Amino acid sequence: HVQLVESGGGSVQTGGSLRLSCTGHGFTFDDSDMGWYRQGPGNECDLVATISGDGSTYYTDSVKGRFSISRDNAKNTVYLQMNSLKSEDTALYYCVLGVSASTWGQGTQVTVS
Fold it and tell me: Tens of pLDDT along 58-84?
């Protein structure tokens, strides 16, 4: 049973930081590409960042230089470190498995005000 469990969301002031975590279960984490999507109020769900099995990363332009995606294969966990948060980063953040985003976590809310 493939499952992604996110944690780490919350409320923070503009300019603050949060770190999201996503732990995977039921698949070979080491070889898997992982990513984060987000859906803001009234917006579509957009890709934020990805990390491949070999550690290569991608970021959407709006978060470059502020967000950092990383992984700890020993813990089956991928992280999204978010710094210099802006109000427009307010969204429900989802962890996904694979380039095709075949599996999604339950989402964790990030509110910046």
Answer: 999 999 999 999 999 999 999 999 999
